[in-house]
Amino acid sequence: MSTTQENSPQRETMGFQAEVSKLLHLMIHSLYSNPEIFLRELVSNASDAADKLRFEALSQPELLADDPELGIWLDVDSDAGTITLRDNGIGMSRDEVVHNLGTIARSGTAEFLGSLSGDEKKDSQLIGQFGVGFYSAFVVADRVTLESRRAGLSAGEGVRWESEGTGEFTVEAAELAQRGTRITLHLRDSAREFADAWRLRGIINKYAEHIALPVHLRQPAEDKEGAAEAGAYEVINQARALWTCPRSEIKDDEYQAFYKHIAHDFEDALSWSHNKVEGKLEYTSLLYVPGRAPFDLYQRDGVRGLKLYVQRVFIRDDAEQFLPLYLRFIKGVVDSNDLPLNVSRELLQSSEIIDSMKSALTRRSLDMLAKLADDGEAYAKFWAAFGQVLKEGVGEDFANKDKVAKLLRFASSSHGEGAATVALADYVARFREGQDTIYYLTADNYTTARQSPHLEIFRKKGVEVLLLTDRIDEWMMSHLTEFDGRKLQHIGKGEVDLAKIAVAEGESAEPELSEAQSQQAETVVARLQQVLGERVKSVRITNRLSESPTCLVLDAFDPGFQMRQLMEAAGQKLPEVKPILEINPTHRLIDRLASESDEARFADLAQVLLDQAALAEGAQLEDPAAYVQRVQRLLQGL
Ligand code: ADP
Ligand code: MG
After folding, report:
1. pLDDT of 429-465, one tens digit each?
2. Quick check: 556 pLDDT over 90?
3. Which domains does the chain have, with CATH numbers?
4. Which atom of ligand 1 lies nearest, measured to the CA of 133?
5. Could you tell me if the CB of 49 is within 6 A of ligand 1?
6. Ligand 1 pocket: which of 40, 55, 87, 100 to mutate (most atoms <8 Å of CB)?
């Protein structure tokens, strides 16, 4: 943002922050299919402005005194092609106007813009995720004039802002008789249809029926049918905060409209839960599960939390104290009757009231998700957007661990073709006879997991294995050792014992190891141990392989690859953990090793087998050049 004369009362021209210009351009070009949302955004801002004023007036009642009936007033001039929207909320000072309408202060904006592809269709989806806000006015207007006077400032301290939504805006001082903000949209030719009172009434009904603020619409002069007198203002919405209405009186699309208002989302919510709690504590909550992730879901300082009201007075937008971090995707409102109106940050941080509301709202949210899970398609959408975040709950919410575990979904070796659709309960229901453990495998990606040699014996025995490929999975599973009385086991760690489970139909019987074979294998193990030395913790014979010659396993409590990455990203260095090399005693390569009398060549073979086992896990070799040289030597010796 550049300025020529700081704080001068004259008209001055300023440039938008580069990000704003970019967003404006994108928005105008990607929202043309849904232009009416400008009204929702402006009404939403007016409603926020009224909320803020009510809040400030708690400590300074004089701010409200001269003009206490808060509202929105809409005027249309179809001849001039303008719409004017006025509120008598908090208003803005000159500095606030310049800052709020000239810059985007939200952190992560630059990253967000960087993630845009230039493909309009895709980008318009992302724009919706970012929240379009005030600038959506330029989707329908080629000039926007905003006049504002902050509550508490005098008539002479008003400000007029104007822009054509290109690179610049102007600001100048203005004499304004009333507190609040008036926005005039000079409609584009392509958006002249909005200069129509009936059209606006329809949009307000759709989006603003249940904001807590009356919307007054000036009746068109030529309107004969309208109940109100032509030229007079008529209130066109119910103006009763949605959550204060009884559930039975609220239609689904009203819930959805309210969701869009509070979440700045274009898309519908997946579900909601609206509850009035009475008794020791009294509060109303209205919680929503969004259908898609906001752009800042993984940013530590991203916006989160519920909208907090106390006795219907807005207190703050981002009350994080009512839900644990792993439920940060839940949007909604909580309206308490017990908290004091002047509730402070400190009180929010440590209060018994908050604690018990938090645990109730947490349960409420988890129950809402459990119910959503009955609808496979909707839940799949939820899981794709927020599954990874919910997984944090396994490690962070001890009290609700079982509830969270039930909500988890996994890819599996035998179901869902790679999609994370398998619940732990589904898995248990499919236990093979003799099975008492839930088996899983972690890997970098689905393909690696699917092809892991560790799965061989499980395939043979027809035992399903959950395939976990999110970065957080190994950490999560370290907190989830039991589900519904069943143990969970990583099949790449420790020993696996499937002796009690019969070979699956259509699979060949498990090979019997002859005395000679086991003796030969023992000898190979000893020689491998000798050659590999420090590179492995130990070498041992396994029965988990049928096709592969070798695989790597870890001890039951050793941290795996993902955990290591996670800890290192958090700045912690873990001590080195050496793998155990397991060999398949019935594999032809073991015969080959046993018959190798040239010690140098045996060493090459041993190292190559170890490296290959690591590659099969999706790991990177420490010394790929040495591996290549060995393979080359072996090939030449063929
Ligand atoms: P958001 O509402 O998500 O903060 P907007 O782009 O809609 O983003 O608005 C930007 C900012 O401009 C608001 O946060 C608010 O500070 C200010 N603003 C917009 N409209 C009004 C209004 N009618 N009254 C007072 N302030 C407003
Ligand atoms: Mg807004």
Report:
1. 999 999 999 999 999 889 989 999 999 999 999 999 9
2. no
3. 3-240 (3.30.565.10), 247-372 (3.30.230.80), 409-490 (3.40.50.11260), 515-636 (1.20.120.790)
4. 7
5. yes
6. 100
